[in-house]
Design goal:
The chain has 200 residues and is an all-alpha fold. The chain has helices spanning 3-17, 33-39, 45-61, 65-86, 93-109, 116-135, 142-172, 174-199. It has one domain (33-199).
Length: 200
């Protein structure tokens, strides 16, 4: 019974690493409707890693953080999306996205436990960059709302994946699961460093 969460956690990094290279960014891809909005966060490794790390981080913190941390990310991401749609400049978007993976992965690897408001502020800050990358491609039409809903739903689902893996590891595999979660965080942080290296 305890091997299933372990297998899922082991498979998660492999799934992330076999996803497309960072493609969910400004100026790439078709941008109409719910389906395209939904596909946007799951078409780039950087976004997938960051979203799953938010869920794992929230699960690791436990308590109210389980829902408040992902909710803070989605809310701030919506604001970032609005900035992108309105053409309000946000500097260093790609760097901010890369740093989100490094910081969240490191927080998980080190099992940091900030107060919930601080954790919400941290993920909310990085969510601005992710939202901007999505919103800059959101069409200014009736389909734009559907596109926005699509990328928010996809983000919430990826948070759910991280939450499910983190909670399953904590509930069923004890110390081994905690070590595995921290290892996944370290792996994500390493990928984030590599991504930033590609930008710089």
């Amino acid at each position: 019974m305890t091997t299933r969460p372990l297998a899922a956690l082991l498979a998660a990094p492999l799934f992330m690493l076999t996803s497309g290279v960072a493609e969910a960014h400004v100026g790439i891809g078709d941008t109409s409707g719910f389906v395209h909005g939904f596909q946007h966060p799951i078409s780039g490794l950087d976004h997938i890693l960051a979203m799953v790390m938010v869920g794992l981080f929230a699960a690791q913190l436990g308590g109210r953080a389980v829902w408040l941390v992902p909710a803070a990310f989605v809310a701030a991401m919506a604001a970032g999306g609005a900035f992108g749609l309105a053409g309000i400049p946000v500097p260093f978007v790609e760097l901010g996205i890369g740093l989100s993976i490094v910081v969240l992965g490191t927080a998980i690897a080190l099992r940091l436990s900030p107060a919930v408001p601080l954790a919400m502020g941290l993920v909310g800050f990085f969510a601005i960059f992710h939202g901007y990358a999505h919103g800059a491609e959101m069409p200014e039409s009736a389909a734009g709302l559907a596109y926005g809903v699509g990328f928010m739903v996809a983000t919430a689902l990826l948070h759910g994946v991280g939450l499910a893996l983190g909670l399953a590891a904590g509930a069923h595999t004890g110390k081994t699961g905690a070590i595995l979660v921290r290892s996944v965080g370290a792996l994500a942080a390493a990928v984030g460093v590599s991504f930033i290296g590609g930008i710089l």
